[in-house]
Design goal:
With about 130 residues, this protein is mostly beta strands. The protein has 2 helices and 10 strands, in the order αββββββββββα.
């Protein structure tokens, strides 16, 4: 059994959101994700993993190609394998609890509007090109 206090585990950075992996179990991991006001995740997917977010405090907006939902304390979102998604934090610090599980935790990034210096990795570009071709 693992036991954590999310408030004690939180770590924030003004330069990027912080994802602190707390542990691994059964082909997955569990993480505390800390966001400063206005921070934005890469627009990405996990082709072979499910990703679940639970909002402990704060909140923002989760976007997929099909919809945009407000994330508030108590809300949780389940992204099935391969679903593109982006999280944009609101005006206050946010603490999210994340669980990922699946065959492979790899992330494929298509864009990152929150980072003007971001450049897509060749492997990620090839992945998305392959989706277009199929």
């Amino acid at each position: 059994m693992d036991v954590f206090n999310l408030v004690e585990e939180q770590r924030f950075s003004t330069t990027e959101h912080v994802e602190k992996i707390l542990g691994h179990i059964g082909g997955g991991d569990y993480t505390v994700a800390c966001w400063e006001a206005g921070q934005i995740s890469p627009y990405h997917c996990h082709p072979q993993a499910t990703e679940i977010y639970f909002c402990f405090s704060g909140g923002g907006v989760m976007k997929t190609p099909e919809r945009t939902v407000d994330i508030v304390p108590g809300a949780f979102v389940v992204h099935p394998p391969g679903e593109l998604h982006e999280y944009e934090n609101g005006p206050q610090r946010t603490l999210l609890f994340r669980i990922r599980y699946g065959e492979d935790m790899v992330s494929r990034h298509i864009d990152w509007r929150g980072n003007p210096h971001w450049k897509q990795r060749p492997a990620d570009a090839a992945y998305f090109e392959g989706l277009k071709a199929s």
